[in-house]
Amino acid sequence: MGSDGQNWYFDLTYDQWTPLSVSGPRPAARYKHAAATVDGKLYIIGGSRNGRYLSDIQVFDLKSLTWSVIKLNSGVLPATSGHNMIKWENKLLFLAGHSKDVSDTVTVRFIDLQSYECGVIETFGKLPVARGGQSVTIFGSKLIMFGGEDRNRFLLNDVNVLDLETMTWSTVETTQTSPAPRFDHTAALHADRYLLILGGCSHSVFFNDLHVLDLETMEWSRPQLQGDLVSPRAGHAGVTLGDNWYIVGGGDNRSGVPETLVLNMSKLVVSVLATVKGRDPLASEGLSVSSALLDGEKFLVAFGGYNGKYNNEVYVMRPKPRDVLHPKILQSPAAEAAAASVRAAYALTKPEKLDLSEREDSNFKEVHVDNTQQKLSAEISAIGQQKKALESLLADVQAENANLKAKIEEVNNTHADLSKELQSVQGQLISERSTCAKLEAQITELQKMLESMQSIEEEVQALRKEKSELERDMERAASVQKQGSGGAWKWITG
Predict the structure, then answer these.
(1) What confidence category does residue 471 fall into, taking pLDDT thresholds of 50, 70 and 90?
(2) Which three-class secondary structure state does DSSP give residue 83?
(3) What are residue 317's DSSP bridge partners?
(4) How confident is the model over 152-181, as a mean pLDDT?
(5) Which stretches are transmembrane (predicted)?
(6) For residue 243, which phi and psi values (nearest 5 degrees)?
């Protein structure tokens, strides 16, 4: 779509992704970058491409549909990937991520949007260990960071909070069952009270689970989602508009996720909003999605990602206005997590206590029986709903078991292949040992021969010495004989 009209975005079809025709040069394709929209402009910082971290700052103007590059007036922005960016006051704060920075703790940097100055913000308190692939969510004047992967590839599931007013870090102690350690998940804030964590991965497993942290009680729970199935994924992106959480892309290292989901956080119901085909840039890992306010209406803006190739396209969606619901009060104790989605529906409609004392008024007794029946009907209905929720949970567990069995079978096959390879190596080792034994025997024989040669050499030296002495004796004898023969001749002839 081009920029023929100044308000081109109002011509978009609801709930459909539309690629934008960009004027001029585009930034390098990338993934695992950080993105934020401010005043109708999409800011992209860093990312990764072909194993190399990037440090550029790109800006896309959603009015003119053009890219530009920000040159910092002061400060240096290190090449970073897997970091997060949050707008705070007149600054863009970006923190954590993988880079060549030697810091052992999370670093918080800023870019002033007016002066284009960049620097490091000094933080205090208990600084969290450096990491990448974490989630960072703004909650009032605080940032909540969950999980990630440190520089030694150690997976994390800790919760750390940065107070933006004092720039002080603190570690949150939570109760109940925490999510499994993970990275490349996505997070959202609901009703200014609940932190939602969806998906992500470990080094071998991709998750599709939803975890909720009650920020008042600091209790974790795992409510069950209703509606369409959420496939396991990591590297997906999410953004909230009201009660709705839009989730885009992601993958499992084999294929990208083609569906764009909308999760109603009040009902805990998931719906497929849009589906793309094949290796579409929207079915990528490490893409970003942001919300942009254009002339009073909010739009979704997606950029980048990797699905076999690196992408740098910009896509826009005009989400259809949806019903505004009252925030749902999520129950957090883990002992009741399996029925969380059902309990909430009845939390605000508890039946009044019934007076069981006997009265002579027959009319009252009749009303009492009716209320009891209504109560029983409501309880039966609630139990039925709980049964459905538990059946859904059982189905999820069975699906997870099937997935684990498949992984176990794959591991077993790998183990069998490795065993065969080990046997082959052992056979080669036995053969090499036999060869070594033969060589050692030959070396022993050669050593014996060498010792024998040394003995022969000594005998030869002795014989040479005797020969030399014998030759000297013979020379002396010949000399004496010559002298004796000359004297006799002289006497005879004299």
Answers:
(1) confident
(2) coil
(3) 17, 300
(4) 96
(5) none
(6) -85, -5
